[in-house]
């Protein structure tokens, strides 16, 4: 039972193990937070578009995307609203593996990536984060397909991999739910929440919540 006293013990353990950033509290739930309604998805017409600073624009159908090699990643999630959830398991496709498989090729001028989601929602990230082990184009969470509230059928997800301090880890909002496109860019530009005043880098360890 995860009561108040157990949570305090777990939080102290997580801090000792350098897994709980400043200002965060543990939860066993998976809170649902997003702006706007949950979209209705038709997998027959769904596509993922990749464009911008790439050699050739690519559009993948749902069937084509699901033929790509899958990977699993266990990560701790840290939301800007101050909840943290440890040891979550995700399955999906890494952007790095898509490049290795020859799905597309970024140009040398590509430095940033804008995630484009349903209803025009956008999230920006440096290319180095998008290509790292802790960013995934996820289709499954804890062994089950994503639920609509959590981004079905595809979402970007970014988290902290324990004992990997070499990886930059932004807050969870930097992974877009209901993902429909990846735009590779020469120059950075703010996404939806960044334009609303949230921090552009969003480092969990520096508490970069707001700009």
Structure description:
- Strand 2 (47-52) and strand 3 form a beta hairpin.
- Helices cover 15% and strands 29% of the residues.
- The chain contains five helices and eleven strands; from the N terminus they run αβββαββαββαββββα.
- The model has no long low-confidence stretch (mean pLDDT 95).
- It has a single domain (43-195), classed as Oxidoreductase, molybdopterin-binding domain (Sulfite Oxidase, Chain A, domain 2).
- The protein is of the alpha+beta class and 211 residues long.
- It holds the Pfam family Oxidored_molyb.
- Residues 1-22 are annotated as: Disordered.
- InterPro entries: OxRdtase_Mopterin-bd_dom, OxRdtase_Mopterin-bd_sf.
Q: What's the gist of this structure?
A:
With 211 residues, this protein is an alpha+beta fold. The chain contains 5 helices and 11 strands, in the order αβββαββαββαββββα. The protein is globular, with a radius of gyration of 17 Å.
């Amino acid at each position: 039972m995860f009561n108040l006293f157990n949570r305090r013990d777990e939080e102290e353990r997580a801090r000792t193990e350098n897994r709980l950033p400043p200002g965060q509290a543990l939860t066993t739930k998976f809170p649902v937070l997003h702006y706007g309604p949950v979209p209705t998805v038709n997998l027959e017409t769904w596509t993922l578009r990749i464009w911008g600073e790439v050699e050739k624009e690519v559009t993948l159908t749902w069937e084509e995307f699901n033929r790509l090699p899958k990977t699993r990643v266990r990560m701790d999630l840290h939301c800007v609203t101050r909840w943290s959830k440890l040891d979550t398991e995700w399955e999906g496709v890494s952007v790095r593996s898509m490049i290795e498989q020859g799905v597309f090729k970024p140009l040398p001028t590509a430095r940033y990536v804008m995630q484009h989601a349903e209803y025009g929602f956008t999230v920006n990230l440096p290319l180095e984060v998008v290509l790292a082990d802790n960013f995934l184009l996820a289709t499954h969470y804890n062994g089950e397909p994503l639920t609509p509230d959590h981004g079905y059928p595809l979402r970007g997800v970014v988290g902290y991999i324990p004992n990997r301090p070499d990886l930059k880890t932004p807050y969870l909002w930097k992974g877009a739910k209901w993902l429909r496109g990846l735009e590779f860019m020469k120059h950075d530009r703010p996404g939806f929440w960044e334009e609303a005043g949230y921090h552009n880098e969003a480092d969990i360890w520096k508490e970069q919540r707001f700009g």
